[in-house]
Structure formats: structure tokens, C-alpha cells
Design goal:
Number of strands: 0
Order of helices and strands: HHHHHHHHHHHHHHHH
Structural class: mainly alpha
Radius of gyration: 19 Å
Shape: globular
Oligomer: single chain
Number of helices: 16
Length: 382
């Protein structure tokens, strides 16, 4: 079963467990984990950074791994590292063990994206690749939705949820073995020369955009649930509902390709930036439940997933001779920004308060509106 549809569904499932569960579930579970294992805002930021650091270490090497050993092995390692990290989290009893679990789980997302980008490049016609890539990328939202549902209904709290997440990660193994290929794929330009692509003007600008986007996104994905509980003042069930709305809204990232065909990727890029920035301002000055808060978290989830989809498409186009490397470079910079953002937001939250920290991060996102990427291959009218 190696049809384009099977590849899209397998990729969607793998992204759901590696991003939605192994990576972004931490932000939702943070208040419950802090109740069992006390953590300061600075410690929470450092723990969040562990996952992003692991992602940085694998996102670039994964492209070379997929080229040399095939996409199947790389995706298989993604499933297994997600399961292993989540099992470590389930049994953690100290900040150090939490860090170990988050680090191992964080490896999975860095392995998954380049492997899937390479598989799409090799097996999907060029005209259909943006649609397939953005559909796969929307798996993040499906994983977040399942995370909220599982945490809400499963007895045993966050530890039992991590165990179930690990099982779901292992459930991707048969799909990966059946759908992805084991053969190594030789590209026209070797991945070992990926650094040469950094000198392209289009890549340099895209790397800067990805870096700042990652920094801004860390405010919500690392601290969103804690901000809703501690700063906005909502109860635990409302916080979970809002997280569910954010994840569900991210499904709109699946239509990035069709929307971009109408208004251009630059137009989608600017809309997604607003979707990330304005909700942070709403969170900064919200107190208690409100319709505005509900709309804000929906825009936050939709904005991030859509923007990451745009970066995925741009990265693949910027290095069309080796799409996995282009995707890897931009997702690496996104992760570097998230490492910095987690650490920085934790410090600002502790020293200046939530309102000031959120406002500064929102302004950073809005400044990106004035930085348009240089035109990539195949784009026009943007």
C-alpha cells in the first residue's frame, strides 16, 4: 500500500504523535506535572528547551539519514524515540528525569519532518506536493486534539496519558513499515553540502523568519496552559477546552495549499503571523473566560500550524534539488527560536510578569510583517 493517499495518512499520523503528543503535550500537562514535581517558571522554560534542543540536533541530520538509509528507517526511529521519551516522562520523579524524557521525545519530531518531506518529494508529483505536505503538517493539530481528549477522560492523570501516547506512537510502526520505502535516494546535490545552501539569499531570509517565528511560538506552546490557569485565571477544564480549540483550529493548516493558490504564500504568511501575534496581546490583558479569549486561542493554533506549513513549502522550494534539506534547515531554525523563546519567556515571565512578556513576544511577531521572503521557485503574484 504505497499510494499517495496512504503516504499522506501515514505522514499525518506520524506527525500527530511526534509533534502533537511527544512534543506539544508538555505545555498542556505542565500545570499537572508542576503539582506533582514543583517547578519554577525558569525551570519550566529550561525543561521546554530540552525538547527543542533535541529537535535541533536531529532536524538537519535526519535529511542525511533519510538519504543514506531511506525514509522508512528514519520514520521508524521517529516513532520509537517518541514512544521511549513518553515512557520516560510517565515514570519521571524529578526535573532531571523530566528533562531526559522531553529530550528523547523531542528527537522524534526532528526525525519525522525531513523523512516525510523526502518521501513526498520522491513519490508525489511536483504540482501536488504543497497540498500533501500541508495536509501531513496538519497532523500536529490532530495530535493536540487527541492529547486534550485523553487527558480529560483517561483515569490516572498525566502519567497514564503519557503511557497511552507511547502506545499510539508504537502504533505508527506498522504503517511506516508498510508505506515508506527502505531504499536510499540519491539526490543531485549531496546533503553533506547542505551548508552551501545557506548562502542563498532566499534561504538566509527564510531562516531569519523561521527563527523569530519559533521564538514567538514558544510563549503559547511552552506556557499556554500555565498562562491560562495562573494569569488569565480559568479553571483546569476550561484551560483544556481552550487548548483543544487551539489544536482544532490548527487543522486549517491543511488548506494552506489551496488558499495560497488564491492569495499567494506571502498572503498566507502574513495572515498566520497576525494569527500568532494578536492572541498573545489578548492573553496579556485577559482576565477570566470570554469570547475574545476563545477566538484568540483558536487564532494562535491556526496561525502556528499554518505558518509552519508555509515554511515547509518554502523550504522545499528553496532547495528543490533536495527538499528534505531545505525543510530541515528551516525547521532547525524554528526549533532554535523555540529554545531561545522558552528560556527567554520563562525569565521575562518571572521578572516582568505575564502581561509584559506576552506583549514583547507579540510585537516581535508583528515586526515580521515587514520582512517578506524573497521570491522562491514557482511563485508568482505574491
Amino acid at each position: 500500500m504505497r499510494s499517495p493517499t496512504a503516504l499522506a495518512l501515514t505522514g499525518f499520523s506520524l506527525i500527530a504523535v511526534t509533534y502533537g503528543m511527544a512534543r506539544f503535550s508538555w505545555g498542556l500537562m505542565l500545570p499537572a506535572i508542576s503539582a506533582d514535581i514543583p517547578l519554577s517558571p525558569q525551570q519550566a522554560g529550561m525543561l521546554s528547551a530540552c525538547s527543542f534542543v533535541a529537535y535541533c540536533l536531529t532536524i538537519l541530520t535526519a535529511a542525511a539519514l533519510a538519504d543514506r538509509y531511506g525514509t522508512r528507517l528514519t520514520a521508524l526511529l521517529a516513532s520509537l524515540s517518541a514512544a521511549t521519551g513518553l515512557l520516560l516522562l510517565a515514570g519521571a520523579s524529578s526535573p532531571l528525569l523530566l528533562a531526559a524524557g522531553l529530550f528523547v521525545a523531542g528527537l522524534s519530531a526532528g526525525l519525522a519532518s525531513p523523512a516525510l518531506a523526502a518521501a513526498v518529494s520522491d513519490r508525489i508529483p511536483a504540482a501536488s506536493q504543497p497540498r500533501t505536505n500541508t495536509l501531513i503538517n496538519a497532523g500536529t493539530s490532530a495530535g493536540i486534539i487527541l492529547t486534550v481528549v485523553i487527558l480529560s477522560v483517561l483515569p490516572g492523570g498525566w502519567r497514564a496519558a503519557c503511557l497511552l501516547f507511547a502506545l499510539l506512537s508504537l502504533a505508527c510502526v506498522p504503517l511506516v513499515m508498510r508505506v515508506l520505502t527502505a531504499e536510499a535516494v540519491a539526490h543531485a546535490a549531496s546533503v553533506c553540502h547542505w551548508h552551501q545552501r545557506l548562502y542563498r539569499r532566499s534561504m538566509r531570509r527564510l531562516m531569519g523568519i523561521a527563527l523569530i517565528s519559533g521564538l514567538v511560538s514558544a510563549a503559547w506552546w511552552s506556557f499556554g496552559s500555565a498562562l491560562l490557569r495562573q494569569h488569565v485565571g480559568v479553571d483546569v477544564e476550561t484551560a483544556r477546552l481552550l487548548w483543544l480549540i487551539a489544536g482544532g483550529a490548527g487543522i486549517v493548516g491543511a488548506v494552506t495549499g489551496p488558499v495560497a493558490a488564491r492569495i499567494g504564500l506571502n498572503g498566507v504568511y502574513r495572515l498566520s503571523l497576525c494569527g500568532m501575534a494578536l492572541p498573545l496581546l489578548v492573553l496579556a490583558f485577559s482576565r477570566g473566560e470570554s469570547i475574545g479569549l476563545l477566538i484568540a486561542v483558536a487564532c494562535c493554533g491556526a496561525g502556528y500550524v499554518t505558518l509552519s506549513g508555509v515554511l515547509l513549502v518554502w523550504g522545499a522550494r528553496a532547495t528543490d534539488e533536495d527538499p528534505a534539506t531545505g525543510v530541515g534547515i528551516l525547521f532547525f531554525m524554528l526549533a532554535v527560536g523555540q529554545v531561545a523563546g522558552s528560556l527567554l519567556f520563562g525569565q521575562l515571565y518571572a521578572s516582568l510578569g505575564a502581561s509584559s512578556a506576552l506583549t514583547l513576544f507579540a510585537v516581535s511577531a508583528l515586526l515580521l510583517l515587514f520582512i517578506a521572503p524573497t521570491q522562491n521557485r514557482g511563485e508568482s503574484g505574491q
